[in-house]
Amino acid sequence: MKLNILCIGDIVGRPGRRIIADKLKTVVKEQGVDCVIANAENAAGGSGLTRQIYDKLLRYGVNLVTLGDHTYRKREIVPTLENADNIVRPANFSKQAAGKGFAFYKTSKGPTVAIVALIGRLFMKPSECPYEAIDRILPQIEQNADIVVVDFHAEATSEKIAMGYHLDGRASLCFGTHTHVVTADERILPKGTAYITDIGMTGAHDSVLGRGTESVLKAFRTQMPFPFEIATGDVKLNGILVTIDSNTKKAERIERIKIDADTEDARVYDSDDGKPEYFNNNF
Fold this sequence. Notes:
This protein is an alpha/beta fold. It has helices at residues 13-31, 51-60, 78-83, 130-141, 157-167, 213-222, and strands spanning 2-8, 10-11, 35-39, 64-66, 87-88, 102-106, 112-119, 147-153, 173-177, 187-188, 194-196, 201-204, 228-229, 235-245, 251-260, 278-279. Strands 1, 2, 3, 4, 5, 12, 14 and 15 form an 8-stranded mixed β-sheet that branches. The longest helix has 19 residues, at 13-31.
């Protein structure tokens, strides 16, 4: 059976959430999407995730939520990580870390999709080996999942590419997140795994990774701390659409998706207060 899986790049702040609210259900309908996976680690004020925003993303049509290095930036998400069955933090965090490293979603067509989150080690905070983690996890989930998808949240392109080859023929899809810059190397690897180094970000692209350009420039030029406001211009949804055969577990198609917001001004938000969002200058 052919399944279409939509993976959405790092959602940044209210602009990212707004375009998800406005556009996602239409995309799902028009493209015949069977499962939506979204990285939401920057969805709350540009860093972290709250229960309220998590609930909104599910209402907007997201089926599985992945997180990365900002998983615990909002401590209030911890009970959700421990109790919900459709949200994952990197599986190679400490075994004592709150949350799960993989989750399942049963599609309306019948086949089940498993999502695994991993985090890189190059230019990132210390974590356990992602290769050993995925080797340990795959035997646990293969009997319960028809399709295995991996979100590798990493900084170095070399590390991401290496993971793609490590998973070729073992997972149906391996996509990268974290850098917020979409790459043009989408492909199907020799043994049938769809791969892309980074699926980009969903938020304001007239920005530096979704943050206001002036404050980021001040921080880089002066080496002084400045609060980074969430940018609001040129809002886009970035991601990939992948077709996978659940019988062979091999990918048949991968393409980049870029959707523009209806307006340049993303300051009309959902039920939030509409005030500008700020957070500390730590990407």
